[in-house]
Amino acid sequence: MIKSIINGIKAYFGSFSLIFKLGLWKYFGVPIIISLCTGLFFATLIYFFADDVGYYIAKVWIWKWGSETFSTISTILGGLLIAVLALIPYKHIVMALSSPFMSPVSEKIEAYLLGDIRHVHRKTTFSEQLGRGIRINIRNLIREVLFVIPLVVLTFIPVIGLVFTILIFAIQAFYVGFGNMDYTMERHFKYKESIQFVKNHKGVALGNGIIFILMLFIPIIGFIIVLPISVVAASTETVKALKNEGFIKLSTAAPDVNKIES
């Protein structure tokens, strides 16, 4: 598990060079616009509603002394709370709407890494890719909300609340990694088979999602580069797993997937 998480993180190191080498930037125009517009929408929500949420949090402090300080802290906490909750739909909206544009990227990476593939891919159209992306991300969104909402309440418990905060981060990272891996899996597996494949490779999904979420803390730039970089990283690791477990058969002329440059 730990090794898989590390591999999922390490896959990011060679993403930029692979994007330039294969000329993949042309595929990212629409997804970048989707990411920026969606991010701007949720950033606006945070800006306008942080004070309102902070107001209700501040009511917990019933004493007069320190009320102004606690009110300021409550506004910050309100903004952070909204940001955590907004991050959940943001990820899934961007990944779902970007699926028809990310699938060709993943396919090109797979062809480059594996060469002459004897495996017969599932042929899907633009609308089928979009439909699957929406289905996968709605499924993950519902599960993520069911897990995260109760944990958000528990984060307000002094000291041990930090543990629940880390757990929320890990849950969000797992599901975003899941979505990034599915751009490759959709050519090889049906819906239920993909879910089982990710269950067997939780570490890869988690490692990929950890960097994805951390990149979103980079103002503006993070929302621009997060999807291209994370999809390339997820694709390389997913292809490795598919090959190692015999889901992809290679010709003798194909390069060894274990020697993929990082």
Automatic annotation (TrEMBL):
<dbReference type="Pfam" id="PF07264">
    <property type="entry name" value="EI24"/>
</dbReference>
<feature type="transmembrane region" description="Helical">
    <location>
        <begin position="70"/>
        <end position="90"/>
    </location>
</feature>
<keyword id="KW-0028">Amino-acid biosynthesis</keyword>
<feature type="transmembrane region" description="Helical">
    <location>
        <begin position="210"/>
        <end position="234"/>
    </location>
</feature>
<keyword id="KW-0997">Cell inner membrane</keyword>
<feature type="transmembrane region" description="Helical">
    <location>
        <begin position="27"/>
        <end position="50"/>
    </location>
</feature>
<keyword id="KW-0472">Membrane</keyword>
<keyword id="KW-1133">Transmembrane helix</keyword>
<dbReference type="InterPro" id="IPR059112">
    <property type="entry name" value="CysZ/EI24"/>
</dbReference>
<keyword id="KW-0764">Sulfate transport</keyword>
<keyword id="KW-1003">Cell membrane</keyword>
<feature type="transmembrane region" description="Helical">
    <location>
        <begin position="145"/>
        <end position="175"/>
    </location>
</feature>
<protein>
    <recommendedName>
        <fullName>CysZ protein</fullName>
    </recommendedName>
</protein>
<keyword id="KW-0813">Transport</keyword>
<keyword id="KW-0812">Transmembrane</keyword>
<dbReference type="InterPro" id="IPR050480">
    <property type="entry name" value="CysZ-like"/>
</dbReference>
